[in-house]
Write a structure and sequence with these properties.
With about 230 residues, the protein is mainly beta. It has one domain: Exo-inulinase, domain 1 (Jelly Rolls), CATH 2.60.120. About 15% of the residues lie in helices and about 45% in strands. Strands 1, 3, 4, 6, 15, 16, 17 and 19 form an eight-stranded antiparallel sheet that branches. A hairpin with a 3-residue loop joins strand 13 and strand 14. The N and C termini lie far apart (about 40 Å).
Length: about 230
């Protein structure tokens, strides 16, 4: 009897894990940039070896390869490998307006230029030169700057110390993001990183950033980009 119960538990656990895995859907087909739209600068994006590769271009501002649709509540996972000279990131719930726009926040007017991708960004930030290792921190691109660590919490020194230990220079790193209502949480290589509550953007685009840089040809790679749309069917 005990053996049968154990087998039943193992089976149910397997079904549960399989169901969780099935809920994650690829955002990138591994072969083309179908379903993605470039905005902002003109950095090069291409597909190579099952990865999306972003490459810096001279005198170009930040460039963004955006999903064609918006997402609100979701679980996002991706892996990345980045040149140590390059800052990058993945936009979450972000916006891009066709014309210059003013938005209200906390009683202040914020001016957003036409075509400027802005909003939450899960940072790829291995800044060895400044000894700042804030990968999987949350930055508010084009608006308020650092949120975590920053105005929404987090201790900068502790965040750096943990990031330095976790980040794999020159190797693949894995990030997980959970966005549920105002809550945004991140993980880097299996360990919790950012944990904040902010309701400025409830929905928006996901986008892969190539940061503007004085040097051309620096590359960042993404692979295994998957999402569970928690708002689907609601």
């Amino acid at each position: 009897m005990r053996a049968r119960c154990l087998m039943a538990c193992v089976y149910l656990l397997g079904v549960s894990l399989a169901g969780a895995a099935d809920a994650m859907k690829p955002l990138f087909d591994g072969k083309t940039l179908g379903g993605w739209v470039q905005k902002g600068g003109k950095a090069e994006y291409r597909v190579e070896g099952g990865c999306i590769v972003g490459k810096t271009a001279l005198k170009e501002p930040n460039s963004f390869l955006c999903t064609a649709r918006e997402y609100s509540d979701f679980i996002l996972e991706f892996e990345f490998k980045v040149d140590p000279k390059l800052n990058s990131g993945v936009q979450l719930r972000s916006q891009c307006f066709d014309k210059d726009t003013e938005i209200d926040h906390a009683g202040k007017k914020v001016k957003i230029p036409a075509g400027r991708v802005h909003g939450y960004q899960c940072e790829i930030d291995p800044d060895a030169g400044r000894d700042r290792w804030w990968t999987a921190g949350i930055y508010d691109e084009g608006r308020r700057g650092w949120l975590f660590p920053g105005i929404c919490g987090g201790d900068a020194k502790q965040f750096t110390d943990q990031g330095r230990r976790l980040f794999k220079q020159g190797e693949w790193n894995k990030v997980r993001v959970e966005a549920r209502g105002p809550s945004i949480k991140t993980w880097l290589n299996g360990e919790p990183r950012a944990d904040l509550s902010d309701g400025m953007n409830p929905t928006g685009l996901i986008a892969l950033q190539v940061h503007g840089h004085k040097e051309a040809g620096l590359e960042v790679r993404w692979r295994n980009i998957r999402i569970e749309d928690l708002a689907a069917g609601k």
